[in-house]
Every structure is written in C-alpha cells, then in structure tokens.
Amino acid sequence: MADETPAYILGALTSVGGVTGYVRTGSVPSIAAGLTVGALVREKALLKGYLYRNLVGTDCYFQYILGGYRIAKRQTYGVELALLASVVLAGSSIPRAIKTGKPLPAGLSALAATGLFIYGRAFLAKA
Prior knowledge:
Layout: H1 5-25, H2 28-36, H3 39-45, H4 50-55, H5 60-72, H6 78-100, H7 103-126
Helix pairs in contact: 1-2, 1-5, 1-7, 5-6, 6-7
C-alpha cells in the first residue's frame, strides 16, 4: 500500500505553485485552484462553463490531497487519484517547462515526475 505523505506534500507544493502563478502573472485560475477549489465547489458549481474548463488542469493539489486522504483511510481509488493528479500536472507543466524554460513550470514538472514515480509504482504493485 502506498503512503499518503507524498500526496499531502505534493498537494501543498502544487498549491504554493498556484499562489505563485497568481502573484507573478495575476492569473485568476491559478489563485482559484491554489486556494479555493474544493470538492463541493468543483463538483457542483464548476462542472459547467468556462471556469471549470480552465481549472481542470490546475487543481492537482486538491486531487493529491484527496488521494492522500483516501490512502490514509484505506479507501478505494486513493492511489489512482494521486496518479491521475500526477498525469494531469505533467501534461500541463512539462510542455510549458520545455517551451519557456522558466523555473516554476520546471519545478511543477519535477513534482509531477515524482508523483508519477511514487504512485505509478504503487498502482503497478496493486495490479
């Protein structure tokens, strides 16, 4: 069974990335994802419309934290949620890191790679 600690750490670090994205660029989706997107808001209010389409790739912090919680409580799909967060984060940050060469996308890419390694191994061990 995977440990929940890396998911909590990755969740905290990606939320810091969201706040940093807002401070540097004024990106409203970054701050919204970094601070306010939660289960009820995301499930009920953001499923429709423009805001959800723009936040779906940036709310990895919440997926990591929920995955870590599910792992800690030995509930189903905890590892899968953390792995999904890593895939989404990698898909959104690695192309930006390659294109811009800036440290923030590069750091998020490293976090994504860490999550892919940890939770990819845990997923394969379960199978």
